[in-house]
Amino acid sequence: MVDAPARLTVLSGPSGVGKGTVVAEVRRRHPEVWVSVSVTTRARRQGEVDGVHYHFVDDAEFDRLIAEDGLLEWAEYAGNRYGTPVAPVRERLAAGAPALLEIELQGARQVRERQPEAQLVFLAPPSWAVLVSRLAGRGSEPAEVQERRLAIAQAELDAAGEFDRVVVNDDVARAADELVSLLTAPSSPCLSQGTGAPTTD
């Protein structure tokens, strides 16, 4: 990644759209891309590595980070808290290199308030039907839990207009490459929509 601007780029989108999958593909295809590792109070899942997937902390440590202004943003989702440690991001940008955050909508809005120069990218599904299928395929959750997830996802999709760019995750490799191209693109005071919003059929 030659002469990439020292810009903070935020990737967000509805639950189930594949944010983690796209970021993993970015890391695989472009290992030079720096991705912030979030802190979370969520329990570690099988196969997850502390400091790689998340920094796993307890509620007391999370409270300390908030009190000491150690988080660029934080949000609560599904009963757990997630946040972005601010120090590594500032160090990366101070070194003149781009930084990528993968966070939820609440956090993206906080970043926009605190760092209005940040580039916000919305990852969208090809269609509502595809997102429903992805969410339903996550496991044998009770119907009321699935309904709640879908309601949240619809509200998150409605927020796409708040973002500078929209990348449609119709192909993981293509979406990853488009995201990297946005990371390396020169800053623009007025960013237009990218691939476009998903259909709702």
UniProtKB/TrEMBL annotation:
InterPro entries: GK/Ca_channel_bsu, Guanylate_kin-like_dom, Guanylate_kinase, Guanylate_kinase_CS, P-loop_NTPase. Belongs to the guanylate kinase family. This is Guanylate kinase. Its EC number is 2.7.4.8. It catalyses: GMP + ATP = GDP + ADP. HAMAP family: Guanylate_kinase (MF_00328). Pfam families: Guanylate_kin. It is an enzyme of class 2 (transferase). PROSITE patterns: GUANYLATE_KINASE_1, GUANYLATE_KINASE_2. It is found in: Cytoplasm. Its main location: cytoplasm. The lineage of its organism: Bacteria, Bacillati, Actinomycetota, Actinomycetes, Geodermatophilales. One of its GO terms (cellular component) is cytosol. Essential for recycling GMP and indirectly, cGMP. It comes from Petropleomorpha daqingensis. GO terms for molecular function: ATP binding; GMP kinase activity. Keywords: ATP-binding, Cytoplasm, Kinase, Nucleotide-binding, Transferase. ATP binds at residues 13-20.
